[in-house]
Amino acid sequence: MASVLAVVAFGSCAAACFGAMQFVVSTLMFRRAPGVHELAASAVQEDCSGPEVSVLIPARNEAERIAKLLQSVLSSRGVQLEVCVLDDESTDGTAEIVGRFAVADSRVRLLRGVRMPGGWNGKQHACWQLAQSARYTELVFLDADVELSSDALVRTVELRRNLGVSLLSGFPRQLTVSLGESLLIPLIHVILLCFLPFPLMRWSRMPGASAGCGQFFAAERAGYLQTGGHSGIRDSRHDGVMLPRLYRRAGLKTDIFDASDLATCRMYQSLSETWQGLLKNATEGFARWPALPMITLVMAAAFVFPPMLMVVGAVGQLPEDARRAVAIGLLCGYLPRVICCLRYDRAWLGALLHPVAVVLFLAIQWTAWVDQKRGRAVQWRQRSYETLSS
Questions:
Q1: Nearest Cα to 185, choosing from 194, 198, 196, 172?
Q2: Distance between CA atoms of 222 and 166, rounded to whole angstroms?
Q3: C-beta atoms surrounding 4 within 10 Å
Q4: 162 contact partners, CB below 8 Å, separation of at least 6
Q5: Which residue ranges does the chain devote to CATH 3.90.550.10?
Q6: Sign of torsion over alpha carbons 23, 24, 26, 28
Q7: To 10 degrees, the CA torsion angle through 115, 116, 118, 123?
Q8: CA torsion angle for 200, 202, 208, 211 (degrees, to 10)?
Q9: Which of 117, 254, 259 is nearest to 198 (CA)?
Q10: How much is the pLDDT for 39?
Q11: DSSP letter for each residue of 27-59
Q12: 320-329: long-range contacts (C-beta < 8 A, 24 or more apart)?
């Protein structure tokens, strides 16, 4: 038994150290957009001509959130702006709120979505309609639960242009309130920085090395139309993963950046909503074969096994070098979560319960895979999406 535990200890240490080293490399490459002081002075003056930007917002039953987003976008400096909101068959007064903004400010346009055809996902259909109506060449897609700083748009557009990429995605600061949110939402940054090969993402066009956050995309119109944009991923529920892959398959460059100083987002508001939100698009992320067993083994080894060995008292049965391996694994497994907590979310209780969060995350992935194999429909935003077993 002790020999088996020793193998687990050394394997866990190796996995945790690999994740920590990858985290350091990725963190160095995951940079923020240039600050206002780094841009040309004329680019951030309220009364100057700047980049022409169409902000495109799909909205379905977003009455509780849409006003804050619109207020933040309309306070933008350094850009010529239009804000298009597509009301996607809302039943909660979303259209009325946007309509009042449109009356008060000519930069706001309310679009009425047409009925969604078969074979489409609701968000992708809404975003495609928005893109067809956009007047400007710079397109910025935002989820309705995002809020921007006044310099977010000009800095994002300038970064996309400076990088020379057709699609740029920002990762906002994630706001967490409930325990369920604090456990699971911060894993977005942990997984991104521990497991995405940033050098391949930045210096190649490999579709599998791409990443994105569906909450915040910036694109130039020519590349968007060349790839088909959201119409090219019409049945997807996870544009954060699938849209960058679409671009790369077309030979175009994509990139990501740290938008935590430009944008905030509260994705979900409870454990059950967080569970369902992550479950709906898991099969386009990790919940696929053979990725699922591989990521389960790696994440369990790096983040779960070292504290488990400590908790069950198994460390006392190990030789000295294996005990040191457990201690190193425990440190390297917690380090990314603690640094992300300091830098992005301040979800300290979730960080303390990091192994529990990882177990919950893996449970979501396996649940999604089982549901797909059984052909269960995915429910989201009062719509049902069929899944295909594979």
A1: 172
A2: 8
A3: 9
A4: 34
A5: 29-268
A6: positive
A7: -170
A8: 140
A9: 254
A10: 64
A11: HHH-PBPPPGGGS-GGGG-TTS---EEEEEEEE
A12: 322/5, 322/6, 322/9, 322/10, 323/9, 325/9, 325/10, 325/12, 325/13, 326/9, 326/12, 326/13, 328/13, 328/16, 328/17, 329/9, 329/12, 329/13, 329/15, 329/16, 329/17, 329/302, 329/305
What does the buried/exposed string (b/e) look like for 41-72 if buried means 16 or more CB atoms within 10 Å of the residue's CB? eebbeeeeebbebbbbbbbbbbbebbeebbeb
* Spatial separation of the C-alpha atoms in residues 64 and 29, rounded to whole Å: 36
- Among 20-34, 229-243, 310-324, where is mean pLDDT lowest? 310-324
Could you tell me how far CA 337 lies from the centroid of its own chain? 16
Cα diameter, the chain: 73
- In angstroms, the CA 350 to CA 236 distance is 30
Which CATH superfamily includes the segment(s) 29-268? Spore Coat Polysaccharide Biosynthesis Protein SpsA; Chain A (3.90.550.10)
- Which run of H or of E encompasses 152? helix 152-163
How many CB atoms neighbour CB 119 within 10 A?
9
Strand bridging mode 378-380 / 383-385:
antiparallel
Question: What DSSP element (H or E) covers 349?
Answer: helix 348-352
| pLDDT tier for residue 182 given thresholds of 50, 70 and 90 | very high
Please provide residue 94's backbone torsions phi and psi, each rounded to the nearest 5 degrees.
-55, -50
Q: Which two tokens stand for residue 24?
A: 């350091």
Q: What does the block give as tokens for 358?
A: 């990882």
Closest CA relative to residue 283, chosen from 215, 213, 377: 377
- Judged on CB neighbours under 10 Å (0-12, 13-18, 19+), 185 is buried
pLDDT of residue 46: 47
The conformational region for residue 173 under phi > 0 = left, psi -120 to 50 = alpha, else beta, is beta
Q: Looking at the chain, how many residues does it have?
A: 390
pLDDT more than 90, % of the chain? 72
Tokens at 265, concatenated? 């987002």
